[in-house]
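Troubleshooting entry. Yesterday's outputs looked truncated, so today I'm pasting the complete records for two proteins to confirm everything comes through intact. If either block looks cut off, that's the bug. Protein one:
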Amino acid sequence: MAVFEVTQYGAFGNGSTDDSPAFMLAWADVCNSSAPTPIFHVPGNKTVLLNPVFFQGPCRSTNIQFQ
């Protein structure tokens, strides 16, 4: 299972730091993953602050999950 957790890409999840760059880095890896079902994971115990982000492809997998 390929799990891409935004905190591993630099997201602080403290509610006051912009986590948008980390989300975009994680998305790039999720989108390029050869796993059949890559997972974009945001920990439930974190409060993220985001500016508008756009998750765009085309991606290698057609079955990306968000958790």
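Protein two, checking that the full record survives here as well:
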Amino acid sequence: MSQPPAYVQTVHAAVNPPVVVLVRSPELTFGDVLCMVIAFFIPPLGVFFKRGCDTDFCINLLLTLLGFLPGVIHAFYVIYVHRGNDELQYQSIA
């Protein structure tokens, strides 16, 4: 049996073998790349498109007001960390 990729996490239940695998998309989607392009010019807007008006947006707005480069770096970080779907996908392996 081969090892699963590094981005696959196995959840062990009370029975063997494991019942559920949580998978996060490792690739950047077209929407992620578009958000990064927008974030290069207007960092808070790229974060807003990816995450909405939440804590990440407020932090990015503050960083951008304090200095443009910290805002861009934070925007790229937020977009990369939340790449693909924001939700984990559940796949049954039973």
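Both blocks look complete. Sanity check on protein two: Strands lie at 8-11, 20-23, 89-92.
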